[in-house]
Prior knowledge:
Bound molecules: zinc ion
Strand content: 15-25%
Radius of gyration: 33 Å
Oligomer: single chain
Order of helices and strands: EEEEEH
Low-confidence stretches: none
Amino acid sequence: MAKLRDVVDKIEIRAAKRATKCRRNGSHKIARGDLRVIVTPSGPAARDYGYCADCGAAILEAAQQRIAAHLGKLQSASTLTPIQEVQAEPAEEEEELPEAGSPRTKPEPHTQ
Ligand SMILES: [Zn+2]
């Protein structure tokens, strides 16, 4: 089976190598060593956009909500047609051996 596609490969968390600013708000300072959320925009311009932890968390939460909404659609659809319908395996029917009245077992002779 093919590897699962990573749809959030444009997002990374990295420590800032130098003091910098948040891409969303220049007044958000990012100190050297602080964790940043790096977003690589699609397109030929290979530029990484770094966001401070607060803005980064907001970005990730927004993405999480979108993903949750997508998942919700799939899951509500799957309640109509369950994908994983657990098929009750037929319990192995143990043939009940006849105890009384079996033609092969003689009833114990009554002692008188
Ligand atoms: Zn910020």
